[in-house]
Design a protein that fits this description.
Layout: H1 2-5, E1 7-11, E2 35-39, H2 52-62, H3 67-76, H4 83-91, H5 95-108, H6 113-127, H7 129-134, H8 145-156, H9 160-167, H10 172-188, H11 192-204, H12 206-210, H13 214-225
Antiparallel strand pairs: 1-2
Helix pairs in contact: 2-3, 4-5, 4-6, 5-6, 6-8, 8-10, 9-10, 10-11, 11-13
InterPro entries: TPR-like_helical_dom_sf
Length: 230
């Protein structure tokens, strides 16, 4: 299963330089159990022809020399958009760092709708949805109708049920994304039962079950992290 490849059990003593790189945001430390199941990037075999910037990211993941500094420089220059790091930080409850990562990525790619939404999700956990919306990252027009509607819902406030209804008879991928982001919207509002309903539905959709889309795997990881049965 694709989701299993991006789940790993770590202890609080595990040192991943990329996840522990310096942040310009004040860091609030959250207590974690001794062993925690989290969402982390899948690491492919290294290509010896990688550019300097990509090599910096690789060394950060694998613990190469001076890896934290090199990775931070590479990320801040926008050489590599490392969305997976931000997602990992979200599931570690390290929301300040996650928000910073997504803001760095959007600064490099101002048309990334999902990075904008995930930044909001991190900041909503810190200060509430109303405050997070005041500093919402505005991005360019997404070519996908479902993501345009999801973006407007997060940016302006809206009804997740209408989002799902709008795409319930559309393409399989559209229903999946509508359900996933409806659930995430409810999570930002601390409405756990409705968040569970829609994210589980996204996993059980045809697209969620059959696609190798990274976000389909993320939806499954989300359920595992919340102890929701599929």
């Amino acid at each position: 299963m694709a989701a299993q490849r991006i789940i790993t059990s770590i202890t609080t003593n595990t040192s991943n330089p990329l996840l522990h790189s310096p942040s310009t945001f004040p860091i609030t430390h959250h207590s974690l159990p001794t062993t925690t199941t989290i969402f982390t990037p899948h690491i492919p075999p290294r290509n010896t022809k990688l550019s300097t910037s990509v090599s910096g990211i690789w060394d950060a993941i694998t613990g190469g020399p001076d890896s934290s500094r090199q990775a931070l420089i590479a990320i801040r220059r926008g050489m590599v958009l490392f969305r997976q790091r931000g997602l990992s930080l979200y599931y570690l409850d390290r929301f300040e760092e996650g928000a910073e990562q997504f803001r760095i990525d959007v600064a490099q790619n101002p048309n990334d709708t999902e990075e904008s939404i995930w930044c909001f999700l991190c900041e909503a956990q810190l200060s509430g949805a109303a405050e997070a919306r005041k500093q919402f990252l505005e991005v360019g027009r997404d070519p996908r109708p479902v993501m345009r509607e999801a973006y407007n819902m997060f940016k302006d406030g809206g009804d997740p049920e209408k989002l799902v209804d709008m795409f319930s008879k559309g393409r399989e991928s559209e229903y999946f994304y509508a359900s996933l982001y409806a659930g995430l919207y409810y999570e930002s509002q601390n409405i756990a039962d409705k968040a569970k309903h829609h994210i589980v539905a996204s996993c059980k959709s045809l697209y969620g079950e059959r696609s190798d889309d990274y976000m389909a795997s993320l939806a499954k990881v989300h359920c595992i992290c919340r102890n929701w049965e599929l």
